[in-house]
Each structure stands twice: as structure tokens, then as C-alpha cells.
Design goal:
Elements: E1 3-16, E2 20-33, E3 37-41, H1 48-55, E4 63-68, E5 71-72, H2 78-84, E6 85-88, H3 100-105, H4 109-112, H5 120-132, H6 148-161, E7 166-170, H7 178-195, E8 198-202, H8 206-212, E9 215-219, E10 225-228, H9 230-235, H10 238-243, E11 248-251, E12 256-259, E13 265-270, H11 273-285, E14 288-291, E15 299-303, E16 309-313, E17 320-322, H12 325-334
Parallel strand pairs: 3-8, 3-9, 6-7, 7-8, 13-14, 13-15
Antiparallel strand pairs: 1-2, 1-4, 4-5, 9-10, 11-12, 15-16, 16-17
The chain binds adenosine-5'-triphosphate.
């Protein structure tokens, strides 16, 4: 896939007379490809927004250069950039006295000019973009009459209306509920794969990033940068190393996190599939580690049949049958 945006030896940060220079990240080598959704991840304050602003041409790097289609972004005019890169930042736009339709229409300005009238084709593009994010029925609402999540969807519609080969979004799913997050990530992935766009977004939502990203960029506070498909990063142990912290373990099988309990007790868990997964979830929460090992003092057997029943065996006690995970956990907590 074609590299549409790249940077070599990029140092980003802030510089002012009073406080001097703050280097946020140093020596970044990046390539953003057409047809891919790329997710930028890292802890609070590592510089995701700073990098996004720099890649979008909103601020200058301290060192290095951002190239768009091989040309330094600093050498392109604002209009040229706005035909190549659309950007959704996290700023609050509710104070701009525009309706939803008017705001999305501004996505057409690179083509029409600021004062020109929108053509029928422009209007069709605005309507199509609103429809793509499920906001058509909000077209006449003012921006300050929307929820944060609705406003976020409108900003994404504006970026779609701008029809650029590169779309950059800073935390686009931050205010969205779970179904809307999945819908938006799916839409952005389709935009990349079906329309050959390069989509870059920052997010803290690892689950959705693992599901929808073609590439993940990981940046951390130690100024290290990792890049790869979610699967390669996971299989190379890089996600575990990156996201694991004291007391928090990244589980390579489920792609989720669990907390580590130093006083955890092992328990044999017999059974498989969905029920095993959720019984294990409850066990971890209650300070037990499910194990395949046999003859441990504690054992849970998942019985086949419906409704599901569980047999709990404890040392020196009669085995008891339980009808729910809740009763099983209460019994274990009491033991
Ligand atoms: N205008 C600014 N001037 C000086 N320092 C800044 C400025 N904006 C951000 N910073 C600092 O730069 C660092 C990176 O900030 P940035 O907003 O890029 O982080 P982030 O990774 O996007 O964080 P988050 O996940 O919390 O959104 C932080 O230490 C922040 O305090």
C-alpha cells in the first residue's frame, strides 16, 4: 500500500521563551499508508495530540519534517493541505454559532472557497456524510444543542465531506457509547479499505483498536516507538510489555486486562468454551486463578446441559452443585 504521509527523525514538543524547549517525543520514523486504519496509542501525556497536530500541519516539529505525498507539509498552502488532509481534533466547537448542516458544509470549503455557494453536488456530499454517521435528522440543530457524542459524530461527518485521501482524528470515540464506538470504528475502517484512504486516529480503546486497526503505533513515556499490525504486536509480546503495569496483566488470549492478585489461590476449572471464559473472569475478580492442573484442593466442574450447573469440590467437604456463577462465587468467598 502506498505511503501517503511519512516522517523521519521527527522530534515533537513545545518551545517558548519563558519555559524553553519541551521535547515530547524524539526521532520518530513514521509511515502512514493508504487503505489502512492506523491507531495511535499510548498513556496520557506521551504526546499523541502533539503528534497529530504536527502530522496535520497545525504545528511545526522541533526537528525533522512531515512529508505528504513526498512533499514537505510546510511547503504546501493551507488550501492544498485541506484537500489532502482532514482533521478532527478534541476541541469543543459548541460555541461556534452554526447548525450541524452548516458545520458539515464547511468541509466543502477547500473546493468551493469560503464565500462561494455550495453546488448540488456539494449538498449531496454533505447529506451523504451526515447519513454515514447517522446524524441526518440533526441537520438543523445548533451545535450547542448536541451531546458530546453527537457533536463528535458531526465533526467526523465534516471530515468525510472534505473528501481527502488522509483523515486524521484525535480520540474520535472518546465520548461515544459502545455501539456508537463500534459503528464509528467500522465506518472509518471501511473508509480506509473501500475508498483507499489513510485513516489515523488516536485512542485509548484497546479492544476496538485490536479489532479494527490494520496498524497500531505505540508510543511511550520512555520515548520508544513500536509499529505493527495488532496481531504481530500481540504475538511478539509487545502489547503485553507495553500495557502491563504493576498489578495489571494484559491477557494475550483475550486481548483484555486483568488485575494481578499476589494472594491468588489456584483452582482447577474443568470445562471449556464461553462458560469457562466467564467463570474464569469471576474467579480472577475474586482472587482465584483458574488452572488446568488436576488434584488441586479446590475444583469447579462445569456440567453440560441447560441451565448450566457447577460442581464445587472443596478439601474435606462434600461436593456441592450450584446453579449460578454468583452462588458459586459466594460459596468460594466463604471458604
Ligand atoms: N501547549 C503546550 N505547551 C507546552 N506543553 C504542552 C502543551 N500541550 C501539551 N503539552 C505537554 O505535552 C505533553 C504531551 O501532551 P499531549 O496532549 O500531546 O498528550 P496525549 O498523549 O495526547 O495525552 P492524553 O492521552 O491525555 O490526551 C504533555 O506533557 C503536556 O503537558
Amino acid at each position: 500500500m502506498e505511503v501517503v504521509l511519512s516522517a523521519k527523525g521527527l522530534t515533537i514538543g513545545y518551545s517558548n521563551k519563558k519555559e524553553g524547549t519541551l521535547e515530547v517525543q524524539r526521532g520518530l520514523n513514521l509511515e502512514l499508508r493508504a487503505g489502512e486504519l492506523t491507531s495511535l496509542m499510548g498513556q496520557n501525556g506521551v504526546g499523541k495530540s502533539t503528534l497529530i497536530r504536527c502530522l496535520a500541519g497545525f504545528s511545526d516539529p522541533l526537528k525533522g519534517e512531515v512529508l505528504v505525498h513526498g512533499k514537505p507539509i510546510g511547503k504546501l498552502s493551507e488550501r492544498e493541505i485541506s484537500k489532502l488532509v482532514s482533521v478532527v481534533l478534541t476541541e469543543n466547537i459548541s460555541q461556534i454559532g452554526l447548525s450541524v448542516y452548516e458545520l458539515v458544509s464547511t468541509g466543502r470549503y477547500p473546493y468551493t472557497g469560503f464565500f462561494a455557494k455550495l453546488s448540488a453536488e456539494d449538498h449531496a456530499k454533505v447529506e451523504e456524510s451526515l447519513q454515514a454517521v447517522g446524524m441526518s435528522s440533526f441537520a438543523d440543530r445548533m451545535l450547542n444543542e448536541l451531546s458530546d457524542g453527537e457533536r463528535q459524530k458531526v465533526m467526523v461527518a465534516k471530515a468525510l465531506a472534505q473528501e481527502t485521501p488522509i483523515v486524521i482524528l484525535d480520540e474520535p470515540t472518546a465520548f461515544l457509547d459502545l455501539p456508537s464506538r463500534i459503528e464509528l470504528m467500522n465506518l472509518l475502517h471501511q473508509l480506509a479499505s473501500e475508498h483507499e484512504k489513510a485513516v489515523l486516529l488516536s485512542t485509548h480503546d484497546l479492544e476496538q483498536a485490536l479489532r479494527f486497526s490494520d496498524t497500531i503505533w505505540l508510543i511511550d513515556g520512555e520515548k520508544s516507538f513500536e509499529c505493527g499490525s495488532p496481531e504481530d504486536l500481540l504475538l511478539q509480546g509487545k502489547l503485553k510489555a507495553f500495557f502491563g503495569r504493576d498489578g495489571i496483566i494484559f491477557d494475550n488470549h483475550s486481548g483484555t486486562f486483568r488485575t494481578e492478585n499476589p494472594f491468588s489461590r489456584e483452582i482447577e476449572l474443568i470445562g471449556d468454551g464461553l462458560i469457562r471464559h466467564w467463570v474464569a473472569n469471576a474467579l480472577y475478580r475474586n482472587g482465584f486463578t483458574p488452572s488446568m492442573e488436576q488434584n488441586l484442593p479446590l475444583c469447579i466442574e462445569i456440567c453440560s446441559g441447560f441451565p448450566t450447573e457447577f460442581i464445587l469440590s472443596k478439601p474435606n467437604a462434600v461436593s456441592v452443585k450450584m446453579g449460578s456463577v454468583a452462588s458459586l462465587m459466594r460459596e468460594l468467598r466463604a471458604s
